[in-house]
Design brief:
This protein is of the alpha/beta class. The chain has two domains: 181 residues, Rossmann fold (3-Layer(aba) Sandwich), CATH 3.40.50.720; 169 residues, NAD(P)-binding Rossmann-like Domain (Rossmann fold, 3-Layer(aba) Sandwich), CATH 3.40.50. Helices cover 35% and strands 16% of the residues. The strands form two sheets. Strands 3-2-1-4-5-6-14-15 form an eight-stranded mixed sheet. The longest helix is centred in the last third of the chain and has 22 residues. Bound molecules: 1,4-dihydronicotinamide adenine dinucleotide (NAI), pyruvic acid and magnesium ion. It comes from Sulfuricella denitrificans (strain DSM 22764 / NBRC 105220 / skB26). InterPro entries: Ala_DH, Ala_DH/PNT_CS2, AlaDH/PNT_N, AlaDH/PNT_NAD(H)-bd, NAD(P)-bd_dom_sf.
Length: 370
């Protein structure tokens, strides 16, 4: 199969859909990969490296988009949508529940859209969201620590404290992949860390893994209000797969947070978990609202795009190989988890959570694949 890998054009998005190592695996399996010129230039994956791995280089985006299977990183931007063709398979992050306009445009383009973030595995985990959640969770503490500095609008708290001075308080809302990796980094810095989740089994697991260094608290409105008021850094990392993030942090609660405290809303790609959150970019990552510094970058892993691209291809490659080897219909029929990634099929929504959030009609993936 011919696989197109376009250069990403979202603000400061330097990740690439497939690494040279991934290209090598695909071409060894008999597939052709067409990588847009300079797609990996900023992260040390030159056209020469891709050529040496067996790729062909496309001179333009339209050439890369002329392939039956497109593997990329971020949701199509406005300049990319006209390049999509009916019946083409698009395999990428989409986050459609947070973006009704993009959903409508992709429905009109009549593509087959498989979203990384809703592909599941046998255990119900999200194997293609996980690697980027690991990266974003770790970055969330670095970004939060930077935003806490006075020059950036923060309240001038050093998360680790110093001898004789108590550490900063970090509150993590959602203890899945992002939350766990945020906790790891914050504890590593020596911060005072509390993590909240509605899953008691998850809290038990994290308590076992981190021991007494991590405080856990069951997530309800009462506890959130109490802890948010005293947090220096609040990381929003909740997820209801495929759905808009629940707005757990009201504007009234943000108002009660300490002036200069920081909210890193990692869940912004699903719409954000605070009423005051709106997407920002790496060019202009923060804004202050109700006295709180908000960092709401929707493609955080792009900050460490080289590591992130490697982590992403490690996870996506087996799925790309399955789609390319078997054809997308057979691959989706054979793998119930991959089928959960099917969000749109030739003008119809095929993901129940997405359909209910956007109040659109839905057909089941099984019917779409008949
Ligand atoms: N901004 C960015 O660049 C990136 C954003 N993300 C986003 O981060 C979010 C979290 O992703 P993951 O950690 O992989 O998800 P996950 O599914 O591993 O974890 C989510 C956790 O939220 C918990 N949760 C649900 N409702 C809750 C509530 N009311 N209170 C407390 N906890 C609650 C769940 O029990 C679960 O443990 C997602 O929206 C994901 O798309 C991930 C990577 C990059
Ligand atoms: C998950 C996601 O949105 C990202 O890695 O950019
Ligand atoms: Mg305030």
């Amino acid at each position: 199969m011919l696989i197109g890998v376009p250069k990403e054009i979202k603000d400061h998005e330097y990740r690439v859909g497939i690494t040279p190592a991934g290209v090598r695996a695909l071409t060894d399996a008999g597939h052709e990969v067409l990588v847009e010129t300079r797609a990996g230039e900023r992260i040390g994956f030159s056209d020469e490296l891709y050529l040496a791995a067996g790729a062909r280089i496309a001179d333009s985006a339209s050439e890369a988009y002329a392939c039956p299977l497109i593997v990329k990183v971020k949701e199509p931007q406005s300049g990319e949508i006209p390049l999509l063709r009916e019946g083409q398979v698009l395999f990428t992050y989409l986050h459609l529940a947070a973006d009704p306009t993009l959903t409508r445009l992709l429905l009109e383009s009549r593509i087959v859209a498989i979203a990384y973030e809703t592909v599941s595995d046998a255990a119900g985990a999200l194997p293609l969201l996980t690697p980027m959640s690991e990266v974003a969770g770790r970055i969330s503490i670095q970004a939060g620590a930077t935003a806490l500095q006075l020059a950036n609008g923060g309240r001038g708290v050093l998360l680790g404290g110093v001898p004789g001075v108590v550490p900063g308080k970090v509150l993590i809302l959602g203890g899945g992949t992002v939350g766990t990796h945020a906790a790891m980094m914050a504890l590593g810095l020596g911060a005072d860390v509390t993590l909240m989740d509605i899953s008691l089994p998850r809290l038990r697991y994290l308590d076992e893994v981190f021991g007494t260094r991590l405080k856990t608290r069951y997530s309800d409105a009462y506890a959130l209000e109490e802890l948010a008021r005293e947090a220096d850094l609040l990381v929003g990392s909740v997820l209801l797969p495929g759905k808009r993030a629940p707005k757990l942090i009201s504007r009234a609660l943000v108002k009660q947070m300490q002036p200069g405290s920081v909210l890193v809303d990692v869940a912004i790609d699903q719409g954000g978990c605070a009423e005051t959150s709106r997407p920002t970019t790496h060019s202009s990552p923060t804004y202050i609202e109700e006295g709180v510094v908000h960092y709401c970058v929707a493609n955080m892993p792009a900050a460490c795009a080289r590591s992130a691209t490697q982590a992403l291809t490690n996870a996506t490659l087996p799925y790309v190989l399955a789609i390319a080897d078997k054809g997308w219909k057979v691959a989706l029929k054979a793998d119930a988890g991959l089928r959960k990634g099917l969000n749109l099929h030739l003008g119809q929504v095929t993901h129940a959570g997405l359909a209910s959030d956007l109040e659109l009609p839905c057909i089941s993936p099984d019917i779409a694949l008949e």
